[in-house]
Amino acid sequence: MPSLEEQLSVLMRGVQEVVPENELAKKIQKSIDTGVPLRIKLGVDPTAPDIHLGHTVVMRKLRQFQDLGHQVVLIVGDYTAMIGDPSGRNSTRPRLSHEQVMENAKEYQEQFFKIVNREKTEIRYNGDWFSKMSFNKVTELAGSITVAQMLERKDFKTRYTNAQEISVHEFLYPLMQGYDSIEIKSDVELGGTDQKFNVLRGRDLQQREGMEPQIGLFMPILLGTDGEQKMSKSFGNYVGINETADTMFHKVYNIADNLTESWFELLTDKPKSEFSDLIKKDILQAKRVLALDIVSQYYDAAAAEAAAEREKAIHSGNELPSDTPEVKLAAGNYGILDLLISIGAFASKGEARRMIQNSGVKISGRIVSDFNEQLMIDNEAVVQVGKRKFYRVVLISTLL
Predict the structure, then answer these.
(1) Which portions of the chain are predicted below pLDDT 50?
(2) C-alpha distances out from residue 313 to 71, 233, 306, Å
């Protein structure tokens, strides 16, 4: 195994918090001295089958542990997923059937192993122990924490204060995640910062069982392409790892400028010295390098370069992104605001007016400056909104 200093220099990159901070080095040194790899836990609930770059922040850290000689244990939460993690939620999640969860798990694992080494991963399903757990053991587990302690958790506290329902089974979720750590004898559990309450339950329960407690290692939540909210499919600000190379490059290249440094740190292995100065000198070139690196991870260098050339053509106005939506309209005369609403570019005319005032709307390459303008749509047209959004308008009559 590499030395303690070498391991920490790799493992601490991008980490937001370690709990307790002083114990990680001790565990690693003990592993080096004994030759016994640490058991690194990640629990995933396959409530949906798709993985985006936000999920990969923790997965990349798992791969680093593997490359340093440690054992990764992936817990597929086939039982916890039926409850649904209440972290960050303001309402109870809809319950999934076991069949739904297992179907999602198949696709999730295929994407997971694009990042983590399959051959060096131990896969466990927590239904293996929860399906056999007696009700007496369930009540014993529930007795390990008080309602007051549960309500210290921010999302539970907020819901309780706002008189929003909290189902009793949601209180079981952190305890179930914690019990997983006992079953697999976890040394380190990884998670985003939103998982801190859950991860620390594992530490508490291990101590109650007389086990050496695990370390919690927490990664920051990746902001989405808009630079404002966490990456999420529901916010539309995500980059999926199963998207085409062109789409992936286009989304990464067009991220908000303020994201570039954190994305380099959390999503690539490039040394800080290689990207810090570049970001200051030439932000567009920095984002090009970032996009090339990320696309190469999921495809290859040739595919990344081809995507970069296509993106260059898009910005010069010679091509459209491969994921450009096609909108069907009848030929006729349209007010520009009505047109923008019809194709789904904006939710309201007020938003459309503001974008036009900021010269952010183009029709077939021409900047629209008058929001009272009337347009005759009698041929195919391309509508561009801002830097990132394109719509291909196709006449219904031409499709018949």
Answers:
(1) 90, 398-400
(2) 45, 27, 11
